[in-house]
Structures are given as structure tokens and as C-alpha cells.
């Protein structure tokens, strides 16, 4: 229920029309999803996002059926700090894509929403035009849960969108640190949006985030900001050359555009296609996706082990005691960890 409530609060009634699944509701069929039935797709994603164990089981069953029909979309991650112009860009870029006949799904990973109760796509006004396009599906992220869980469900939602036949899946995340890494592990190409600005702004972008970027897009290259945007472009180009001097994948590119004036969208798409083409050529795309899938398997294992551990009877009391011991210096962290794992193993044996 909280997921649905939050969606309503964010004002998404226009875009997301699927009601919560009723008790014991049938899951949508893989055929309906593959035939392009948007309601079936929306219900599938609701199932994927559900915290209920029976829903989870149904979602996995459905995903297994869909899996052979996934993989054809161009998977793009879009990230950047609040205010950089993500929503405006996604709308302009999305409109460009529908203009050249592409079908587009927009998904969001929003780790901040658990705190703020809002969604990064909550400023729906900026997406109104895009949301009205026939070939477009927009889905905000669930409003609660740990980053790993949110991103994990976004990955599965992305697969459902691919099976539904979308040519492009855009995954938006607000730049708050670790979310970029999680999204970079979901997509073929990770685009970082940055503002026109001086060297100080450039310093503000964490090196780790720059290293993830396959494409850097300087936003707002219009009006008074036109020249500054061009200089910023050059600054990032030299910064990238320092950071990733001849690394593995295709060289990251730097572009600027104006989403407000809907200029530069063709250049962005060309850069994305060129990047994908370069990956494809050497079989690197398949390798990248295979590696991402195994990364997610281990994330899933870690998450489930931790959740099983936390759910163990007596574990809360034990870990609280050990935590106090560690905090006060009576036990080393390693000794306390051994204590927790020993208790976990004993209970696993009993099970
Ligand atoms: N001049 C100009 N302003 C823009 C452009 N794109 C976004 N903005 C403005 O930047 C602000 C933040 O944009 P928004 O898309 O909401 O950023 P987000 O927080 O990253 O989603 C808004 O006031 C926009 O009008 C652009 O291409 N040119
Ligand atoms: Mg926004």
C-alpha cells in the first residue's frame, strides 16, 4: 500500500493508472505484456515492486517467461545533481526519440524518496508532453526501501519493458552518491548531466562518478550560458582525458545541449548509437550485460543473507549486545562478527 499511496501523493494518477493488485489477483500474462498491453506491463511492475512473498514468487515466474524476449532495448542511465536539468532533458530527448519512431520507457531510481516522501519524477509538469505521447511509458520508482532493493526492482522493471518491445529504456537517478554506481550496473551507457560552470563545479563532481560516465552532457547551453557551456564542455574533456587515459571501453564523449530549446538531442542520440555500436562490434555489449547480471546475482545473495540474518530469532538481542561490546572497546569488531556468524550458522543447521 505505501507504494501506491506515495505515487498518488507525487501526482502520478495521470501516468500510472494501475491499481494495487487485489488479494490473490492473477498475474498479467507474458503474452499480454509482449503484445504491448500497457496495463499488463504496469501490473507486472506493480507485482515486481510488491513486498509480499506471494507477489514476489509470481513476479519471478513471470520474469522467467519474459527473459527470452529481453535484451533488445538500448539501456541508458541518466544521472546528475538536482536542478541540473534531468527532467527537462528527458522530456526533450524523449520527444526527439518518439519523433524518430522510437518507443521509450522511462524508469526512476530514487534513493532520496524514502527520506523526502517525494519522487524525482514528481515534478510531472515537466514530463507532461512526453507522458501524452503514444509510444511512451513513464514509471516512477517505488517510494521506499533500500537503494539496492529499489535498483534491483528497477532492473526487473527494465526487463519487463524490454519484453514489451520498447526500443529505449531510460533510467533516471538523482546524483546522491552510490545510486549512480547501481544504475551504471543496469545500463549499456551511463550519461552524466552537468551544469555550465567554472572549475569549482567540476571539482564538485566526484571523481568516482566521472569514472562511471560513458557520456557527459553539459545542459542549458543556451542564452547567456551558451559560451560558458562550451568552455565547460572543454573542461570536462580535459578532465576525462586525465581520468580515463585509454581505458577499456569506448572513449567517453562530452557534449552540450539545450533541452529548453530542444537543441542537440540528435547529437546525443548519435553519440549513444556510436557508443553502442562500438560495444557491439567487439562483443563487449554481451560481455558487459553478462557481467552486470552476475553482479546483480551476488547483490541479491548478499541482500538475502543479510535479511535472513536479521530475521533470525535472538539475533537482534545478540547483535545489540555485541555492538555495545564493540563500541565500548571490550571486543574487537572481528571477534563480534565471528560471534554473529557462529550464531547464524547454528540456527541454519537447526533449520
Ligand atoms: N536555460 C535552460 N534552463 C534549463 C534547461 N533545462 C532545464 N533548465 C532549468 O533548470 C531547472 C531545473 O530543471 P529540471 O529539469 O527540473 O532539473 P532536475 O532537477 O535535474 O530534474 C529548471 O528551472 C529548468 O527550467 C535548458 O536547457 N536551458
Ligand atoms: Mg527532475
What does it look like?
With 351 residues, the protein is an alpha/beta fold. The two termini are 32 Å apart. A seven-stranded parallel sheet has the order 3-2-4-1-5-6-7, sandwiched between helices. 55% of the residues lie in helices and 11% in strands. The protein has helices at 2-9, 30-34, 38-49, 53-66, 86-99, 113-116, 128-132, 147-163, 178-184, 199-204, 207-212, 226-243, 265-281, 284-311, 315-327, 333-350; strands at residues 74-80, 104-109, 136-139, 168-174, 189-194, 215-218, 253-256. Helix 12 links the parallel strand 6 and strand 7 (253-256). The longest helix has 28 residues, at 284-311. The protein has 16 helices and seven strands. It folds into two domains: 70-282, 3-Layer(aba) Sandwich (Rossmann fold); 293-350, Helix Hairpins (Orthogonal Bundle). The structure holds guanosine-5'-diphosphate and magnesium ion (MG).
Q: What characteristic shape results from the CA principal axes?
A: globular
Radius of gyration: 22 Å
User: What's the quaternary structure here?
Assistant: single chain
Tally of structural domains: 2
State the CATH architecture of the largest domain.
Answer: 3-Layer(aba) Sandwich
Lateral arrangement of strands in the main beta sheet = 3-2-4-1-5-6-7
Order of helices and strands: HHHHEHEHHEHEHEHHEHEHHHH
The mean pLDDT is: 84
CATH class category name of the largest domain: Alpha Beta
Sheet of most strands = 7 strands, parallel
Number of helices: 16
* Beta-strand content estimate: 5-15%
**Helix fraction by DSSP (H/I, runs of at least 4):** 40-55%
Judged by helices, strands and strand pairing, the structural class is alpha/beta
Uncertain segments are 1-18, 114-118
CATH superfamily of the largest domain: P-loop containing nucleotide triphosphate hydrolases
Number of strands: 7
CATH topology of the largest domain: Rossmann fold
Cofactors, ions and other ligands in the entry: guanosine-5'-diphosphate, magnesium ion
Distance, first to last CA: 32 Å
Amino acid at each position: 500500500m505505501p507504494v501506491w499511496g506515495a505515487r498518488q501523493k507525487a501526482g502520478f494518477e495521470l501516468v500510472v493508472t494501475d491499481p494495487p493488485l487485489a488479494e490473490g489477483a492473477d498475474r498479467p500474462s507474458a503474452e499480454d505484456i509482449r503484445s504491448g498491453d500497457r496495463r499488463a506491463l504496469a501490473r507486472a511492475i506493480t507485482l515486481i515492486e510488491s513486498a509480499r512473498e506471494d507477489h514476489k514468487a509470481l513476479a519471478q515466474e513471470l520474469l522467467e517467461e519474459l527473459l527470452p524476449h529481453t535484451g533488445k532495448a538500448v539501456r541508458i542511465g541518466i544521472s546528475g545533481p538536482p536542478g541540473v536539468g534531468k527532467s527537462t532533458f528527458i522530456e526533450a530527448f524523449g520527444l526527439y526519440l518518439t519523433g524518430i519512431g522510437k518507443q521509450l520507457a522511462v524508469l526512476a531510481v530514487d534513493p532520496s524518496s524514502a527520506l523526502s516522501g517525494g519522487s524525482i519524477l514528481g515534478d510531472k509538469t515537466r514530463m507532461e508532453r512526453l507522458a501524452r505521447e503514444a509510444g511512451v511509458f513513464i514509471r516512477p520508482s517505488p517510494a521506499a526501501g533500500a537503494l539496492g532493493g529499489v535498483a534491483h526492482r528497477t532492473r526487473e522493471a527494465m526487463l519487463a519493458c524490454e519484453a514489451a518491445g520498447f526500443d529505449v529504456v531510460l533510467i533516471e537517478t538523482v546524483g546522491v552518491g552510490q545510486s549512480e554506481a547501481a544504475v551504471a550496473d543496469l545500463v549499456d551507457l551511463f550519461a552524466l548531466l552537468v551544469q555550465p560552470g567554472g572549475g569549482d563545479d567540476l571539482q564538485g563532481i566526484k571523481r568516482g562518478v566521472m569514472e562511471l560516465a560513458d557520456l557527459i552532457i553539459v545542459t542549458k547551453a543556451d542564452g547567456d550560458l551558451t559560451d560558458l557551456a562550451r568552455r565547460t564542455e572543454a573542461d570536462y574533456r580535459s578532465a576525462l582525458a586525465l581520468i580515463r587515459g585509454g581505458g577499456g571501453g569506448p572513449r567517453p564523449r562530452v557534449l552540450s545541449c539545450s533541452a529548453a530549446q530542444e537543441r542537440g538531442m540528435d547529437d546525443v542520440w548519435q553519440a549513444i548509437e556510436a557508443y553502442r555500436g562500438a560495444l557491439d562490434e567487439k562483443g563487449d555489449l554481451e560481455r558487459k550485460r553478462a557481467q552486470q547480471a552476475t553482479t546483480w546475482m551476488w547483490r541479491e545473495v548478499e541482500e538475502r543473507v543479510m535479511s535472513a540474518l536479521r530475521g533470525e530469532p535472538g539475533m537482534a538481542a545478540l547483535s545489540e549486545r555485541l555492538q555495545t561490546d564493540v563500541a565500548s572497546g571490550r571486543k574487537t569488531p572481528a571477534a563480534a562478527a565471528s560471534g554473529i556468524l557462529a550464531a547464524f550458522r547454528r540456527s541454519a543447521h537447526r533449520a
